[in-house]
Amino acid sequence: MEMTWRRVEEQDFPLLRMWLQQPHVKRWWNHETTAEAVARDFGPAARGEEPSEDLLAFLDGRPVGLVQRSRLRDYPEYLAELAVIVPVPDDAMTIDYLIGDPRQTGQGIGTAVIHSAIARTWAEHPAAACVLVPVVAANRPSWRALERAGLRRVGVGNLEPDNPVDDRTHYLYRIDRPGTGG
């Protein structure tokens, strides 16, 4: 099983839109799925106008998921929210992720995507001290995938959920750059 990656491009928006419409994604991402909304929300990163990176994950050449990766310092308000719950190193990064096809969930693909995204983070962002990931407490499959990918729960706190039906309780997971002793 080979995992490869590339930046999201505007030609990928129909695929992202389809994934965002899937019930298992819609439940946790709660994202508008019109073509205009997808272009509005993913266009700036695709064009390099936003400091975050939207990355497509491919398994054996087929697109399976999306990872959004960013330096927390590029989003000071979000960093401040997290810093109320846990200490956030200066060069901390964060990811968000989804597996698009419901038939590919529950097979360890999410864990593989997270593990691969973190390995790429260490290689592509040499200053990154750690990856810190908040996940709504009710999303057990997501936080279990983080645990299987080697992240550890370091905090519990209240954050605004992506979906208003969810409680504000979030778990914060962290993995430190290998060899840093963090």
Automatic annotation (TrEMBL):
Domain of life assignment: Bacteria
Cited Pfam families: Acetyltransf_8 (PF13523)
Ranges where the N-acetyltransferase domain occurs: 3-178
This protein's record includes keyword Transport: no
Keyword terms, alphabetized: Antibiotic resistance
Name listed for the protein in its UniProt record: N-acetyltransferase domain-containing protein
